[in-house]
Amino acid sequence: MPKCIYFEICGGCSLQHILYELTLENKKKFVQDQLRKNGYVVENIALEHGEPYNYRNRMDFAFSNAGLSLREQRHFDRYVKINRCEISNEKINSLLSELQIWFDKNKDRLETFDMRKKEGVLKYALIRTPTNTDNTTLCFAVNINSSKTASHIEQLKEYAKESSVKNIIVAKVDAQKDDSTSSDFFVIKGSEMIEEEFLGKKIVYHSQGFFQNNTRVAELMVKKARSIFEKYDKEIDKEKIKEQLKKSTFLDLYGGVGTFGINLADLFVKTIILESVGPSIECAKINIEKNNLKNTEAIVGDASRMNKVTNATGKNLFVVTDPPRSGMEQKAILHLLEMEPEVIIYVSCNPQQFAKELRAFSKKYDLISMTVFDMFPQTNHIETMAELRLKK
Asked: CATH homologous superfamily for 46-50+214-390?
């Protein structure tokens, strides 16, 4: 029985009618099928997960004439008003209720955005509520092309005075773009930065940038990566592995704000976080300083220039690569194959793309283990982690 009263209306979840344990098995089977299509038979795929509900620390609610809403399943321009989201954490639901009350009181003075006509002012309310801190953040996405935007911003400033939210930001978005964040923004309360406590480390990320929406499962992924590095070769004594890592460089590719790099830096003599998005690297630099990591640096640049940021190769190099859904650039794959790191941990949110790229890595690497992480319960999305070890 679906827990959410909006199930089959809202387009957010699609699996609530299925027993959760069965959805987990189906996701494992899907990954196995994708690997099999590309020549890999993997019988033992591990699976890790957190809570099936109330896990999300970020939600993007659209403004409609009814209030804060989510898009309907089969209509890009039709919405259903949401009073509670079952996959969101309780802090999000509390702030959603606060926002709905404010909207209802002021709706005669507010103009919401019409997706079809590309007119109106208020587009989205993005709520972010870190799991381990009270650094709650609300970003209003407004249509920069409307003549009424300035007057609405004044109303948002008035709301900020009474709101319980710590940080409130206004993001100016073009009418033609369906975005809830923007590089053109300003703060009306608090800060544009959000701080999370992650496995005992302080992690700062930007309100307009990316951070994992399921903190608990993201922590499981980092723990798994640590376990892989600490036991990457069963023929080598654990103490000798530790000694080897302490002589080696860790390269965190597509590193974002440094979630893997910050949390695994203690294993290695040197850690490099490489990311093409400038604001994320600025956050990574803050995180390095906040956690007093003397052996870690953050560099802005494409993964395809990894060979220019480190001289480490072979048994002195270990890598985590966590590319976007489109996968790794061909040039980046070729560089990795040339550098021959001892272990590559490939994190993917697109099992089909990963399975295709695995063929390129198979020339030099064995697939040692595969883990499915249920980062987005009640949805079809799948996160995987593959352990690749250099052939002996």
From this structure: Vaccinia Virus protein VP39 (3.40.50.150)
pLDDT in tens, 208-226: 999 999 999 999 999 999 9
Query: CB within 8 A of 12, min separation 6: which ones?
Result: 70, 85, 87, 379
Beta strands across the sheet bearing 343-348: 46-49, 365-374, 383-390, 343-348, 317-321, 249-253, 270-275, 296-300
CATH number, domain 58-206: 2.40.50.1070
108-163 tens-digit pLDDT? 999 999 999 999 999 999 999 999 899 999 999 999 999 999 999 999 999 999 99
How do the domains of the chain map onto residue ranges?
46-50+214-390, 58-206
Neighbours of 344 (CB within 10 A): 24
The mean pLDDT value of the chain amounts to 95
CA distance readout (Å), 194 to 136, 169, 184, 279, 326: 8, 12, 18, 13, 27
Question: Measured between alpha carbons, how far is 275 from 90 in angstroms, rounded to an integer?
Answer: 32
